[in-house]
């Protein structure tokens, strides 16, 4: 079991961030640039409002992209089947009490090459209540495109296999009160449903964003671009009415 304490630190705007080889991370102003989110945002996800949970040793924030370099033996998982708890993956999120919205991000993982290497979207509330969606590398032939939902300390993993040649994926994370939907896309236009779920602690203020990790002895660079929030793209059900 590899548990590490949560460590949240606010990012400042107009920075490029370069990790060191010890437990400290240096922040340095470079060219007065800041991450450029689209102007019309449903939520305020400016860089200065985002927080790290377990700040990574090496990452970079540029005007149009965020890079995270993973380190070995980092993961998010709680108990089910494997009977261990892993809670040490770096997570970068923003808080909101907005009940209806969608969050979109494009991920690139060309360096992913070892079993379980992964990066994607996340809603991390605490160690026992969170969800994530990502592509997890398996071998030179295939990967797992999937999602993990964790309620009350037990994780539930749903996957489908895709080619190991896939090295980019878009995600759309949508909220309707305490219910959630994760979708994926290869082109950023046409999305397919991956998961609908209920989060028992997801009815009030939440945190959501991006993560990357390497559960085994590996490391790779995960790249995140095209981040934006929109009106909720997951529309209300138009069939049977609620009880």
What's the layout of helices and strands?
Elements: E1 2-3, E2 8-10, E3 16-19, E4 25-28, E5 50-53, E6 58-61, E7 66-69, E8 76-78, E9 85-87, E10 91-96, E11 100-108, E12 118-126, E13 129-137, E14 142-151, E15 154-163, E16 168-176, E17 179-185, E18 192-198, E19 206-213, E20 221-230
Parallel strand pairs: 1-9
Antiparallel strand pairs: 2-5, 3-4, 5-10, 6-7, 7-20, 8-9, 10-19, 11-16, 11-20, 12-13, 12-19, 13-14, 14-15, 16-17, 17-18
How would you explain this protein's 3D organization?
The chain has strands at 2-3, 8-10, 16-19, 25-28, 50-53, 58-61, 66-69, 76-78, 85-87, 91-96, 100-108, 118-126, 129-137, 142-151, 154-163, 168-176, 179-185, 192-198, 206-213, 221-230. Helix content is 0%, strand content 51%. The chain is built from no helices and 20 strands. The protein has a single domain, classed as Jelly Rolls, CATH 2.60.120. With 243 residues, it is mainly β.
